[in-house]
Amino acid sequence: MILQGLDIAIVLLYIGLTVFIGFWISRRASKDMDSYFLGGNTISWPLLGLSNASGMFDISGTMWMVYLLFVYGLKSVWVPWLWPVFNQIFMMVFLSVWLRRSGVMTGAEWITFRFGKTPGSNLSHIIVVIFAIMNVIGFLAYGFIGIGKFTASFLPWQLSPDPVWNANLYGLIVTAITTLYVVKGGMFSVVFTEVLQFIIMTIACLAVGIIAMMEVSPEMLKAAVPEGWSNLFFQWKLEVDWSNLMPAAQAKIEKDGWTIFGAFWMMMLFKGWLQSMAGPAPNYDMQRVLSAKTPIEAAKMSGFVNVVLLIPRYMLITGLGVLALVFFSKDLNAMGDKVDFELILPFAMKNFIPQGVLGLLIAGLLAAFMSTYAATVNAAPAYLVNDIYKRYIRPDAPDKVYVRMSYLASVLVVIVGTAFGFVTDSLNDVVQWIVAALYGGYTASNMLKWYWWRFNSYGYFWGMLTGIVSAIILSILLPEGTPELYTFPLILVISLLGCVIATLLTPPDDDAVLMEFYRRVRPWGFWKPVHDKLLLQYPDLQANRDFGRDMVNVVVGMIWQTALTAAGIYLVIKDFQALAICAAVIAGTTLILKFNWYDKLKDAPVGGGF
User: Fold this and answer.
1) Per the CB 3.0–4.6 Å rule, which of 73, 374, 521, 582 could disulfide with 567?
2) pTM value?
3) What's the CATH fold of domain 5-21+42-600?
C-alpha cells in the first residue's frame, strides 16, 4: 500500500514540528546539567505525567500488545505484569515521594546519597552505571526493531531487497531523526515534544477504537475467536485453544510457554511485587520523578500516568486487534507457520484505516516510538557524563562542556543500541531478556537498599554483580523455548546470597550517611537503630508507620489499574455489562485512593529538622 498525499503531509508536518520544538527550546536546556537532565525542576507534574505516559506508549510495546490481545484475548491484560506495569502503583503510593526527597540527579548519584563515599560505594556506583547503560541499550534495540518493522510496512521505497535489512534501514533513518532533537534539547525537549506526541496519539487511539466499534459487531468477533478469548479470568490452564481456527496462533502460545497460565500469573505477581518494591530502574521513569518540583508532585505524576494512558492505549490495541481478527484471519492463516504476529498492527492499519486517519495514526505511532526512544536516550548521558566523566575524569569542567559531552554520549548509546537491534529479530526475545533476565539481577540489591539499615555498599555491589552475571549465564544456558521468567527465582536467590553474605562480612556504612539518608527520605522498614541514634539530635523525629496503609493502597491501586486497562478493551468490543462493572470498580477504588492516599501525601517527613 502506498500512502496518499494527505497522509504523507500529516506525517511530514508532525516530524518537522517535533524537530523544530527540540531546537527551539535547546537554548534553555543547555544552560547547565540540571536544566539539561531535569528541566531545572520547573516542569509541572501534569506535563511530566503526560510526558511519562507518552514515553511508556512505545510502538514496539504496542505492536507486542496487539499480538498479545489477538492471541490471548482478554487474558492479555495480565501479561504486561512481566514489566511489571503495576510498578507505577508502588511509585504512586510511596516510592516517588521517597525518591524525590533525595534531591539527586540520577540513580547512580542516589547510591552516593544512600551509601556515602567509600570504596564500596564507588563499586556500587559503577555497577549501577553499567546496569543503567545495559538497560538503555536493551530498550533502544527493542525500539529499533519495532520502528523498523513498522515503517517498512508503509513507506513505498525499497531500501534493500532483503526484508529484514529493509526494515533495519528504515529504523536507522527514524532513530537518526529522533536522536537529533533529543540530543539538542535535553529534558525540556523530551517533555514538551512528548506532550505534543501524546495529544496526537490519543486522538489516533480514539479514532481507531471508534472505527473498530462501527465495523465489528460482538457476533462477528465471537465467530472469529476461540472459546474463552473474551474471558478476563482464568484457571490453572490458559483455556484459549486456537487449534481449529488458527494453528499458528496455538503454536505461538506453546512457544511462549504460557499455557499453564496460573503458574505464569503467580510468577509474574511474585516477581513483579519484589521488583516494584525495589523501585524504578535507572531509566526515563526515574528521571521524570527526579525532575518533579516536589515529592508530592512526583507522586501525583506517577498516578496521573495511569489515568491518561491506559484507556486510550487499549482502545488502539483492541481496535487494531479485533479488526485483524475479523477481517484478516484468513490472510494470516494463509501464511501458515511463517506468520509474524508482531506485524498484525501495521497489517490492520494498511488494510482498514481510511485516508487522513491513517496519516494521523502513523504520526501517532511514530510519536509513540520517538517519545520512548527520546526518553531512553535522555537517561543515558546522565549516567555517562554526570556519573563517570564528571565524577572521575573532569570534576571541575564548565557546564557547557558537560552538555557537549552529553551530546556525544547520546549519540554513542544510540549507535550501540541500534547495532544490537540489527542482530535481533524478535521483539518478544528482547522483552523476555529485559524483564526476566536483566531485571532479575536488579531486584534483590535495590529492594534491600530501601528497607534494611545494615545493608551496605559492598552488599549492593556483590548482589548486583552476582544477579546480572547469573542472569546472563542462565539466559545463554536455557534450553530453547524455555521462558526466561522461570529463571527469576534462581537469579533472585543467587543475588540475595551475594547481598547478605557481602553485607555481613563487611562493616556497616558510616552512621552519618545512614542517619542523613533516613532523616530526609524516612522509609519504613528495618531502620530502628538509625532512628534511635537520630532521636538524640531530633527528639521530635517520627518514624514512618504507613506500611499497612501503603500496602492497602497498593492492592487497591492494582485493582484500579487493571480495571482501567480492561475498560478500554470492553468499550471497543462493546461488552457494556463488563464495562459497567469496570466503571463501578474504577469509581470505588478511586474514592478509596482519594481518602487513603491522595489526601495523606506529604512533601517532607515529620520531625528531624523539617
Assistant:
1) 582
2) 0.83
3) Sodium/glucose cotransporter (1.20.1730)
